[in-house]
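Co-fold these.
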Amino acid sequence: MNSVATPAPVVEHLPPAEPVGLTRRLALRGTVLALVIAVAGFAVPYLVPDKYTMGLLLDGIILALLALGIGFLARHLGLISLGHTAFFGGAAYALAIATQQWGWGMVPAAVFGFAVGTMLALLMGLLVVRASGMGFLMLTLALGQALYQLCVQTVARPYTGAYDGLQVANEGTFFGMGSATVMNAALFWPVVWVVLVVAALVLWWLGRARFGVVLEGIRENEERMRFSGYNTFRPRLYAFVVSGAVAALGGVLFALNAAYVSPDLLSFTKAGDSLIAAIVGGLGSLAGPVLGALVYIYAQATFNSSGNLHLYTGIALVLVLVFLPGGLTGGLGRLARRLRKKVRR
Amino acid sequence: MNFAQLLNGVAFGSLLMILSSGLAMIYGLRGVTNFAHGALYMAGAYLAYSVSTNFSFWLALIVAPLALAVLGAVLELVFFRRLEHRSHIEVGLVTFGIALVLERVIVLIWGERTLAVSAPGGLGGTTSVFGVAYPTYRLLIIAVAVVLAAALVWWLRGTRLGLHIRAASRDGETSAILGIDSDRVSLVVVCVGAALAGLAGALAAPYVSVDPGMGVSILINVLIVVVIGGAGSIAGAMIAGMALGIVQTLGAVLLPSLSVLVPYIALVAVLLWRPAGLAGKGVAR
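Predicted complex below.
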């Protein structure tokens, strides 16, 4: 109970990432792979003819950005955040307010939304990254909910619309796309897809570089890293801000596409849902949160009408944590390794 | 601001106190934040509704804690004990999943609508307290909380089992070596913690509205109380719970627009001032 050792990381069941630095060859290989994935993704709108599925897929990869941010912190620092909705929702709200109240065009509003989301991550990070384990979870939850409460206050109504939410006035163009285009899932898909792939590449790159190795050292034993002469506060803060920035990107894209923001974006439910998506998908890899987000959106579309969505997500969360640590991608990875072994024999 | 509002604060603080002492107890022993605590509280309130409409409210005050203690035993035996070797945070997330399931199951049983529970006979009126007419039922909540706080302190400070609980919370490994049956201690603590949540729910039923959102809304308050009080410190949680109840209720009168932010501001202020919480061994564990 009282031991000085840091709590065991949440990803302890996963094979540790190979402790190699980022060699030039590896970086090149990763970048080429990302390029291939990005280009391949452009085909999706042509392969998915019906509008409904396309909408779900787009919602899925927007949620994936939020889950990716949460997953990065969990993977490299063992920190589980319930506060990333603040950056996702904060960015979405900032964009909505900039377009609606100040009449900004889409591009400056998007930049503003991203900046606000990232600033919120910096502010929250300064307060929370010293904590770890349960303390971190509770602090991020509390601060995230503070933003929710602030947003639905009657005082905030002129700015945020309180419980009514806020329309996004998509004026001007977003890199040549009009308001109708950004709201069309098939036409907006390439933008979100490229952002997702680039964000994943940057996170992969950071995780593999010296920075990521330092983070893993802090995750394994923060005290020992300090004794070894490393500053452990700043890397944690930077990692928190980066993961918050990825979530903020998701918020910006969400607001552009949905053209409407509501307090739900900041709610406890949303925080829990995005975390569950990341965990069920698997925190051990970059693909995990993305897969988890897609599965979550599918489950939402299937079960929401009966109102039993959270019954199933709750069961899924418990089952994955108890029986399938490493989530879906972790389980698939183990299965693939076992099959490969059999084939070799 | 008047005396009645102060009493309102004390009544709300009493509920927070009962809830957060249970949460802090489980946290102290298991190292796990029980995210299902809000759902347990909600279950207590819904049970109280059924028992009080069919039998009597006084029976509900006994049945709800007992039923919740059984649920606590299930939590301990099925999840906490089996997942003992896992990291605390994973077990915490499991309780998060349990909370989602339990809240939905409650809604499936009792429905989505807000239920009203009337105060027990004879306590529906008001009593004059220092010349102020005040709802008698809320005085009962305060009285129960005071008695319970005294009983808890006596239990933890004055009995052998309490000694074992304190020892196991301080250092589980050493106390196990010294012959304390940690499984038994842990079962007792989780059962009592859950029973306290059930009691708080039953007590709250005539005071607040019984609706599907009640668990989540109080959970965040209780988590804040436990962090402010110092994670794992039961006395800290009690004091912080009472203080937060009073401050939040009075804040609602003085600064109506910002009162909901009071817990968060208090949290940030306390953490900047004393990162370990008011009486804590540290949240950074």
